[in-house]
Amino acid sequence: MAGTINKVILIGNLGDDVKMHYFDDRNSVGRFPLATSESYTNKQTGEKVTNTDWHNIVVRNKLAEICEKYLSKGDKVYVEGRLKNRQWEQDGIKRYATEIIANDMTFLSTKKSAEVNQGPAQNQAGSSSNPNPVASVDDDLPF
Questions:
Q1: Which domain holds residue 35?
Q2: Does residue 39 form part of some domain?
Q3: Which of 101, 116, 133, 137 has its CA 20 to 30 A from that of 11?
Q4: Burial class of residue 32 (count of CB atoms within 10 Å of its CB; 0-12, 13-18, 19+)
C-alpha cells in the first residue's frame, strides 16, 4: 500500500461545554468530551444494555471559536478528524491521551431557545400579500 489513512468519523453528544485556551499568537484550541453509545439486547436476560464511549475532541482556531459560540453540553454533532496520541509529564508521572483532532463538524441539534424567542413565523407585509404567489389554474399556457 502506498499510503496510510488516519480518519475518524463520530456522531455523538457533548459531555460538557467547549473549554477554550487562547495563545499570544492569536491561535486558540477548544476541547470537549464527546459521548457515543452502542445498545444491544442481552440474549440471556432480555435486558437492553447500553455502552457509552468517551472521546476527547480537539478543535483549533476558527473552528474552535465557532464551537465555543454555538455548542453546549448535550448537543449532538458530527465530527470528522484524525487520531492523535500525545504524552506529557505531570508531577513526575508520564501521562498519555488519545484525541480526535477535528477538521470538519456538522451541528445536528436544533436550538429550541432560538425558536422560543422568535415565536411562529409571521408575514411582515400582512396576511393579504403572498410572497410566492401560485399561478392560477386558469392561466393561458403556451403549450
A1: 8-110
A2: yes
A3: 116
A4: buried
- Contact between 82 and 72 (Cβ < 8 Å): no
Interacting residues of 135 by C-beta distance below 8 A, sequence separation 6+ = none
DSSP letter at 15?
A: S
Please tell me the distance from the alpha carbon of residue 21 to that of residue 56, in angstroms, as a whole number: 15
Residue 136, in any domain of the structure: no
| Domain-embedded: residue 134 | no
Domain with residue 41: its CATH number is: 2.40.50.140
DSSP of 95-134: EEEEEEEEEEEEE----HHHHHHH-S---TT-TT--SSPP
One digit per residue, the tens of pLDDT, for the chain of length 143 reads: 579 999 999 999 999 999 999 999 889 999 999 999 999 999 999 999 999 999 999 999 999 999 999 999 999 999 999 999 999 999 999 999 999 999 999 999 887 654 444 444 444 444 444 444 444 344 454 54
